[in-house]
Amino acid sequence: MTEAGPSPSIWGRLDRWWFEPAPALRLAVLRVLILGYGLIWLIGFSPMLLGALRFEPDRFAPVGVVSLLDAPLGVGVGVALWLLAVVSGVAALLGWRFRLVAPVHALALLWVASYRNSWGMVFHTDNLLVMHTLILALLPASDAWSLDARRGGAPATSALDPRYGWGPKLMATITTIAYVLAGVAKLRNAGGAWLDGGALLNHVAWDNLRKVELGATHSPLGAALCAYPAVFVPLAWMSMVLELGAPIALLGRRLAWAWTIGMWCFHIGVAAIMAIVFAYPVSGLAFAPLFAVEVPALSLAARARARWPKSRLLALLPTPAPTPISPG
Amino acid sequence: MSAPLRRAPALLVSALFVAAAVWPALREPPRDSFPLSNYPMFSTVRDKPWLDVIVGFDAEGEEHEIRPNLVANIEVMQAAQTIRRAVRARRAKLLCARVAERVAADGELGHIVRLEVQRRRFDPRTYFLDPEVDPDGATPLAVRRKARCRVPVAKDRS
User: Fold this and answer.
1) With a CB-CB cutoff of 8 Å, which residues 137-166 of chain A face chain B?
2) Is position A61 within any domain?
3) What is the DSSP letter of B56?
4) Per-residue pLDDT tens digits for A268-289
5) Which domain holds residue B66?
6) Where does a domain end: A150, A176, A198?
7) Which residue of B has its CA nearest to A120?
8) Domain presence at residue B118
9) Separation CA A34–CA A36 (nearest Å)
10) Which among A181, A211, A250, A267 is the top mutation candidate for probing chain B, defined by the most B β-carbons within 10 Å of its own β-carbon?
11) Is residue A15 situated within a structural domain?
């Protein structure tokens, strides 16, 4: 029988939990996933992002960092900032001079996304993307699978280090806070009307009605369900449990899986009955910091190597880092 | 350097981000902004809300839909907010004139001769009911005209 040592204090436990050691590749994979999504967003949404530069000045209603402005930017400056976000995003994704270009990219993305929201309509689809990018920019996310790592010459090891663990934990915490706040807002504003399904029914009906009247695509499924109010009672409760229960995802990988699957289904449901797509969570990337994302990345890379052993593109894939040699 | 000191920057950054994320919900009243938000979407209770719209009419007086991209851009919510804010700020006439210019320049909308900015009140709970159950379910409960304007005759339309 072994003698148990003194149990760690609550601070010690919190420290071990927040600074959970992780490999450098975890942050690198998050860098590629999140910045890759951000670049697709910047380019895919460019008609809307750049189109906003031509809105009439009297519609300008700045939010966030854009509140620093009294009047809209000139078109040239706006296009230059968008270009800066794209170019710095490519460099940061490749891990080229990451410490310098990642903060530039994060701030440029913050500006471009805030500017899009500064015309009277604050969208809630891109908040987590911007927050995750801002956090990522402060982390050592180019220590593996990057041009910086290649230039440095020092091979990354698979050693687990707390330096690579707290960033994903912070990103995951920000994700869960967003959902908790959404749940709190529903209870605060709608209260009992939310829990009896009435507020949700009204929202689904109102949102689809608005789309019909304004000439946009609505959800026929959502419209049809409006005739069955009882359906909205379990849906309202499920959304509340998932949103207020978000912090459980931080307590362990199994709980994280269970919550993530539930939340993902919630977003698919929103898309199905309201025709509103929260693309970042639906893509799974909002939840990626909860998981050991380097494992599937290495597995996919190994499969690609086995299938196309002579391809030059293999040089771009992540490689399993050597295990550190322990002294003695 | 001791572990607590080494971890101080990470703890500081973490605390700042968490505090910033929670802050919008702690304000009184809670405040929506970007990227820091209290995420109020889908939380307000709407009984029989008003919807602000822009509608077109042809020479026979028949009503036609005006696409969101003629009001703001292809994002329907952006268009909806643009009309709503214009009505609230008493700039509906100005918005009507701007949209009319875009309608005039659109080759497919040559049949539209005038526009109206309207406030329409609906009952969301009856809107999608089967017309056999409620024949008037989708009919506005009330309509208020906030502005009207003629579509200018573009050179290539005449």
Assistant:
1) 138, 162-163, 166
2) yes
3) E
4) 999 999 999 999 999 999 999 9
5) 50-150
6) A150
7) B81
8) yes
9) 5
10) A181
11) no
A2 part of a folded domain: no
User: Which 3 state secondary structure label does DSSP give A260?
Assistant: helix
Q: What is the pTM of this model?
A: 0.92
How big is the A-B interface in CB pairs under 8 Å?
Answer: 183
The alpha carbon of A127 is separated from its chain's Cα centroid by a whole number of angstroms, namely: 8
C-beta separation of A27 from A168 below 8 A = yes
Say which of B37, B46, B76 has its CB closest to residue A214: B76
Say whether both A135 and A179 belong to one domain: no
Question: Are B84 and B25 contained in the same domain?
Answer: no
User: Which pLDDT tens digit goes with each residue over B57-83?
Assistant: 999 999 999 999 999 988 888 999 999
Full domain range(s) for residue A64: 20-150
- Dihedral (CA of B73, B77, B80, B83) sign: negative
The contacts of residue A229 (CB under 8 Å, 6+ apart) are: A197, A198, A201
Q: Cis before residue B35, ω within 30 degrees of 0?
A: yes
Report the distance separating Cα A105 and Cα A79, nearest Å: 14
A212-245 confidence digits (pLDDT tens): 998 888 999 999 999 999 999 999 999 999 999 9
User: Residue B52: which H helix or E strand, with range?
Assistant: strand B50-58
Enter the ipTM. 0.92
Minimum Cα–Cα distance from A224: chain B residue: B128
Q: Closest by alpha carbon to B62, among B101, B24, B113, B21?
A: B113
Residues forming a β-bridge with B115 = B56, B149
Q: Are residues B19 and B37 in the same domain?
A: yes
Tell me the per-residue pLDDT of A75-86, one tens digit each, with 9 for 90 and over: 999 999 999 999
Does residue B63 belong to any structural domain of this protein?
Answer: yes
Which tokens in the block code for residue B150? 């003629």
A189 and B49: CB-CB below 8 Å? no
